[in-house]
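[recover] target loaded
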C-alpha cells in the first residue's frame, strides 16, 4: 500500500511538526536578527543609517533571488538535504558575522546568509505537502507559520537583549548558537522523505512556470502588494530603533527592541483577516488592511511614546492582514487561471523580499535626510500605492470565482517577516 502521509496523532507527524517548527523558528530568527543592532552598527563601524540597513537588505535580496532556484534544486537532490544544509550553513555564517573584522565582511556574510537560508522556507511547504496526509496539512502548516512568527520575534529580542549585557558580537554569537540548537533538533527528528520523486521539475520547467505566472495580469497586480507592504513594514522597523534611541526617548537597545512584541498581535490579525476574506473576498480585505496600515503610519508622527508604540502596533495589524490574504489570493488566482501555483508563490516571495531590500535601505537615507517625518512620508506614499492597486484589484475582481481557498492556501504559506 502506498504511503499516504503522516496523520495527526502518529509519531511521524509529531516528528515532522517539531522539525518544521524548529526550522522555521531558526530561519526567520536569523533573517532579521540584526535589525535591533542597526543603530549600534552606525557607531561601531562609522557608517550612515542607510549603509547600516544594508545588513538587512543584503540578506533579504540574497534570500529572494535564491528562493527562485532552491525549489528546483531540491527537486534534483532531495527535500531534506536542502533543508538541513540550509539551516546548518546559515547558522555557521551568522556565527562568522560575530568575528567580522570590518563592515564589508558583515555585508558579504549577510548576503551569503540569505542565499543559504533560502533552502528551508523554499522547500519546507513542498516537503509538508508530500509527507503529511491531506487531512493533517492545516495542523502542520499552523505550527510552521507559528515558528515563523516566534522566530522573527525571538531573533530580534535575543540580539537586543544580549547587546545590553555585552556587545553586538556577543549578540550575534548567541543568536547563532541558539539557532544551531534548533538546527540540531531538525537534524535529529526530521523524517526522511518517503513520497519524494527526484527530477520531476528541473530548472527549465521552473523557468517556464515563472514565465506563465508573469504573463497573468491579475497576478502581476497582486505582486505589487507584497512589494510595497513589506517594503513599508521593514522600512518602519529598520528605523524605529534609531528614533527610540534618539531624543526625546533615549531608550537603550534592549528596551527599544520590546516594540517587536507587537508581532503576536499581528498573528491574530492574519488569522482574523483570513476568515473575513473567506466571507467577503480577498481584495476587499487587502484594501482595508492597507487603510489600517496607513492610519497607523500617520499616527507614528506623534511624539508621546505610548502613542508611537500604539501606532506601530496598528501598522503591524494592517500589514499581517494584507500579507496573509494576499499570499492566499496569489495561490487562488494562479489555480483558477491554470497557472503553476508553486511558481506563483515563488514570485510572490521574491517580490516580498525585494520590497524589503529596496525600501529597507531607502529608509536609512530618508532618516538621514529628514529624520522620522521623512521616513513616515515615504512609507505613506508606498502604502498609498498599495491601496490604489488593492482598490483596482477589488474592482476588477468584484465577482471572484469560487475556487478552493483552503487548497490554494495550503500550497502557499510564505510565513512571517
Amino acid at each position: 500500500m502506498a504511503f499516504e502521509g503522516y496523520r495527526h496523532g502518529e509519531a511521524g507527524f509529531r516528528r515532522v511538526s517539531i522539525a518544521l517548527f524548529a526550522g522555521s523558528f531558526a530561519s526567520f530568527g536569523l533573517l532579521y536578527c540584526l535589525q535591533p543592532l542597526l543603530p549600534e552598527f552606525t557607531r561601531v563601524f562609522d557608517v550612515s543609517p542607510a549603509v547600516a540597513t544594508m545588513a538587512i537588505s543584503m540578506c533579504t535580496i540574497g534570500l529572494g533571488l535564491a528562493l527562485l532556484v532552491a525549489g528546483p534544486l531540491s527537486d534534483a537532490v532531495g527535500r531534506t538535504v536542502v533543508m538541513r544544509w540550509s539551516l546548518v550553513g546559515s547558522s555557521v555564517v551568522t556565527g562568522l558575522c560575530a568575528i567580522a573584522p570590518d563592515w564589508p565582511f558583515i555585508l558579504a556574510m549577510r548576503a551569503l546568509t540569505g542565499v543559504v537560508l533560502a533552502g528551508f522556507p523554499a522547500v519546507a511547504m513542498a516537503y509538508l505537502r508530500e509527507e503529511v496526509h491531506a487531512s493533517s496539512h492545516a495542523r502542520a502548516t499552523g505550527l510552521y507559520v507559528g515558528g515563523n512568527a516566534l522566530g522573527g520575534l525571538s531573533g530580534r529580542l535575543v540580539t537586543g537583549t544580549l547587546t545590553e549585557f555585552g556587545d553586538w558580537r556577543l549578540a550575534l554569537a548567541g543568536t547563532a548558537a541558539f539557532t544551531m540548537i534548533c538546527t540540531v533538533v531538525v537534524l535529529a527528528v526530521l523524517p526522511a522523505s518517503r513520497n519524494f520523486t527526484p527530477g520531476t521539475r528541473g530548472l527549465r520547467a521552473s523557468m517556464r512556470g515563472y514565465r506563465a505566472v508573469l504573463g497573468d495580469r491579475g497576478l502581476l497586480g497582486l505582486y505589487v502588494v507584497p512589494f510595497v507592504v513589506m517594503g513599508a513594514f521593514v522600512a518602519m522597523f529598520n528605523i524605529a530603533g534609531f528614533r527610540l534611541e534618539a531624543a526625546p526617548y533615549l531608550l537603550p537597545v534592549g528596551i527599544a527592541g520590546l516594540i517587536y512584541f507587537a508581532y503576536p498581535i499581528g498573528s491574530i490579525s492574519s488569522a482574523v483577516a483570513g476568515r473575513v476574506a473567506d466571507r467577503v473576498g480577498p481584495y476587499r480585505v487587502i484594501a482595508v488592511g492597507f487603510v489600517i496600515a496607513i492610519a497607523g503610519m500617520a499616527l507614528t508622527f506623534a511624539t508621546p511614546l505610548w502613542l508611537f508604540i500604539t501606532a506601530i502596533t496598528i501598522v503591524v495589524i494592517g500589514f499581517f492582514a494584507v500579507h496573509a490574504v494576499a499570499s492566499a489570493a496569489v495561490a487562488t488566482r494562479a489555480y483558477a487561471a491554470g497557472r503553476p501555483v508553486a511558481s506563483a508563490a515563488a514570485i510572490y516571495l521574491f517580490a516580498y523580499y525585494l520590497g524589503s531590500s529596496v525600501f529597507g535601505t531607502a529608509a536609512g537615507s530618508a532618516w538621514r535626510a529628514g529624520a522620522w517625518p521623512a521616513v513616515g512620508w515615504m512609507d505613506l506614499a508606498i502604502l498609498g500605492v498599495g491601496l490604489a492597486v488593492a482598490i483596482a484589484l477589488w474592482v476588477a475582481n468584484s465577482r471572484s470565482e469560487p475556487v478552493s481557498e483552503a487548497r490554494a492556501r495550503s500550497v502557499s504559506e510564505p510565513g512571517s517577516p
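[recover] notes: Residues 400-414 have pLDDT under 50 and may be disordered.
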